[in-house]
Amino acid sequence: MHVLRIAALVAACSVVVDAAVKVLRSEESFVEELVVKPLADGKVLLHFEFTMYEAVAARNGSLHSYHLLPRQIGEIAWRYGVSELRLAFTQGSWRESRWGYAPAVSQGGGAEILARIEGSVDTAAHRWTGLANALSGVFCASLNFVGGENTDFPRMTFASEGSSNSNTLRRGYLPRENVCTENLTPWIKQLPCQSKSGIGMLLNPHRLYNMHFHTMGVSLDSVTDVTESGNPVLRYKQQLSVVLDPHAFGLRNSSWSLSELMDRRLGVACPVASQSTIRVALPEVGLRITPKPDSISKVGERLVHTFDMQRRNIEDIGFTFEPGAIPARENTLPAVAAHRYVTGHGGSSGGVESIIVNRRAVPITVTYLDTLPWYLRVYSHTLVINSELEGAAAVVLKPSRAIFTPAIDRGRPSSMELELELPPNSRTVLRYDFDKGFLRYTEHPPDANRGFNIAPAIVSYKLSTTNSTADQPLFCIADAAVPQKNKECTVHVYTELFLASLPTPDFSMPYNVVSISCTILALFFGRVFNLLTRDFVVL
């Protein structure tokens, strides 16, 4: 009798658990996607994207039962009042003249963290410090070095992103941060299926870090256009983009496969994924793949072959180049290109020169954000903006809106945000000067003579997703496919890092002083001790 009661109780509990799991899964969803794109110089772009959706109404602080959304991310966002978060680790430089648009939103070298935090100014500052320390522990990075001296408050550059524009937006940048497998391991563990099934099986650290360009990041925000009811949905996205060279792994130029490139084979789709898709963007001629895709569509100048891993098991995808054929170079370059250089010489002063190129035949409105550390004292009155047109003399360009934030020594960097309208087919040059401050000897890094890495500038502009997708990055094409999505996509172009050489003290002087002092003292002591202890005997 007791056995029957226990069996009935277990059956009832299992029914309740199954019902709860179904309700929970109805409130959450997971989508994984891989984009493979052979590039013009023989390299290959792999863009991994894993997206988790969760109904905001299902959240209840730390008492929420997490299923797909990583618990550590959810609790960090709830504890520190984060309504939007973006974190990116990047190594290498994206060559937009060869490869076209960058696939990821962030492509600046180093580590970048951006967050909208609720609360008053003092509360947000305290939460910002706690957020940086928490993320530092989660991703095994040096984000705990993000403080007031390297945190800025952009107002125009990221104003159109997210759903909580009224909250305080903070941005921290660590240009010296290196990316390694210690950052990738916790990133993979946040995936529902990790690297055991689905597209995540291709995440081989030994191949991902033998690359020419690598960017990895996460983002957390709230969207309202992915549900039919229009209710807010929490979206957590993990992105990883890498540019690999098949020749570096001993693969032939004419034929190779995805498993040979990554040294891993695909298997079954992730069981909890609602969509598991592989898209291969190929030129119309000169390259063929096996097996046959589930569908083929034309996007710009390329044919996109789509494989649905939920419909069939795909273990590998082979690429075969026809004799003499190479991937076509991108005929449509990005609309805007930006570069930045350091000018001047000597240890007392210098300057910055930024070049922004508009490749389109129409004017483009851009936002220029440049943040310099406090020890580079910027003179805003020296700012000069000249726009050089094709076949015409250079003209002085005045910003339609400008925000200058002066630096505070060891407390806040200087920031400059400019809204510019670039003339058609123009080359715009920004110049300004700065003085180099003095640091305490304890504030210099171990390799002080190498110089200080300065974070890149950001040029932002908007693209219309209703136009041809031939002139759009991958994330803009994805946004255009979402119903009721805003028909404008914001593109951020990061310039190069530059090294600022500051006056450095002679770190060897204490050693030299100690050495010469000890030498003189030893010689003096030896002579005196010899005279005091020696007996002079007359023979």
TrEMBL record:
Signal sequence annotation: 1-19
One GO CC term on file: GPI-anchor transamidase complex
Keywords per UniProt: Membrane, Signal, Transmembrane, Transmembrane helix
Lineage of source species: Eukaryota, Fungi, Fungi incertae sedis, Zoopagomycota, Kickxellomycotina
Pfam families named in the record: Gpi16
Keyword Ubl conjugation: no
InterPro entries: PIG-T
Record protein name field: Gpi16 subunit, GPI transamidase component
Residue stretches in coiled coil: none
Ranges annotated as spanning the membrane: 509-529
Record flagged with keyword Membrane: yes
PANTHER family found in the cross-reference section: GPI TRANSAMIDASE COMPONENT PIG-T, GPI TRANSAMIDASE COMPONENT PIG-T-RELATED
Organism this protein belongs to: Coemansia reversa (strain ATCC 12441 / NRRL 1564)
Superkingdom, natural source: Eukaryota
GO terms for biological process, alphabetical: attachment of GPI anchor to protein
